Each structure stands twice: as C-alpha cells, then as structure tokens.
Amino acid sequence: ILYLVHNNRSYHQEVMMILKMAARRQRVNHKNIYVGTLIDDPAPDYAKIAQGYGLFAQGPVSDPKDLAAAIRRGIEVVKRGEPALIDVVSDGR
Question: What is the pTM of this model?
Fold first, then answer.
C-alpha cells in the first residue's frame, strides 16, 4: 500500500463549512474563521510518525517538482511488499 497524505495542515473542510454557514447567517468575520482549524504550530511530520511505526516514509514534500521522484521511490518500496507513506504538503484549497 502506498499512502499519499494530503497534508493541508488544517481542517479545511471545516473552514469551508464555517464560511458557508457564516455567509448564510450574515456573520462573516474573517478573523475567527481559522480558530481551531489550523494544524501548523507545530506542523505535524507525518513521515516521522509513520517511520515510528516502521514504515518507509518520505516528506514533507512541499515542492511539486519533488513529488514524482518521491512517488517513484514509494512505488519501489511497495513492489518489495512493504507499505510506504509520502507526506505531501498541499494548499487548503
């Protein structure tokens, strides 16, 4: 199994719901939108967490130019019958 973690460092689905409900109720206060939804101080290192469980893991991959090589390395590990994880940092949207 090759795990690709879509790491947007937030609970972005919650942000979208907050925006939708605030607009519906005409209570948009952009200062409060991200309260309790960001996971960035400190940002979790999912690769280190996975390595702690004995998985091959890479990342965080934040440059799109590095993603293809990371996926290739992950596929090679999976071909050997081992699980692999790639922590891919992405935008919230």
Answer: 0.76
